[in-house]
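Re: that chain you flagged

S.,

Sorry for the slow reply, it's been a week of failed gels. I finally had a moment to sit down with the sequence you sent. For the record, here it is as I used it:
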Amino acid sequence: MARIIPVLALILAVATARVTRSESPKEVLAQINKDSFGNSILSVLQLQLATGGPVGEIQILLNNIASQLNGDQKKADKVHESDTVAFEKIIADLEQEIAYHQSQIVALSNLRDSTTEALGEAEAEVRVVTSDIANNEKSFADEQATRNSQHETWVRKDAEHVDQMDAIDEASKIVQHLQAGVAFAQLKSRFEKVQAKLMESKHALFKPLINALTQLASKVDNKSIIKILELLAQIRQQLVASRASLLATEERQAANWEVQSGHLQEEHKRLVERKAFLENSIVQFKVTIQEAVEDLEDQTLFLEDAEDSLAIQERWAAEQEAQYEAQTFEREQQLEVVERLQEVLTQKVSAASEFLQIREEVF
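Prediction finished late last night. Pasting the structure tokens below so you have them in one place:
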């Protein structure tokens, strides 16, 4: 074991020397001698030769060193191969992770943008629907007011017709009493009330009747009575027809309003439901956008971490590869030195002995 240490030092010295195969054994040994470690080894070798020690023992040691170097290289190759497989697996996983985060970023960006566009459209439609609801409610109120006015007009006119028909009936009874011989003086009070009521109506239909009744008050005769009774019957018939026409108009307007109000109410219900749906959609859109933005930030950080990890792994792999190549190169150089020393010691021992003899004389 004591002899192995100087031999290893000799190998390192020769590796540092960077010799070439074109040099002679003496030149090789001369280069080794220039190194402090080589000088020491050559001194040991010189002592070994001077005492008659066998060169074969040194050759055995060199063979063992060569075997050890080859074994170390095989182990290094195996570790390198294992590290390479592991590295490639790590790189593949990181690249897959990076691709996943990139796809997520694209998907989330598209979701954010499309949802933002949908949000804008929904908000715009809400404004339109809100305006439509206001217009619908105004239309309903206006139409309701018109319908109420129509109904009130009908009620008023129908009451006027009833009053007028009652007045016509009362006038007919008075005239019939006069026709039956009742004195005008007995009917004067009732006559004047009916006359006043007919005059209050200011209806053109009653003007001929009012004139006839006025004449009847001054002179009662059967001919005038018959004429007035006929006129009263005609007027009453016209009032009945007019009242029936007003009632038909009222019923038609009521039916039209029922249909129209139904349509307006259905439209109002649809608009309110649409607005509620849009407002709920807007809330959901905002939540989706917020979540997409947060997830996008997370995915961006994950992507950056994965890219950083990939860069670290690639740098580590490059360093390991450089170290492996450097150590491999160093072993190759060391093996070359061992081989050259073996060549010198086995095939050209005389040259070594000669050099050592010269060394002893010169150095």
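What I noticed first: The chain is about 90% helix and 0% strand.

Talk soon,
D.
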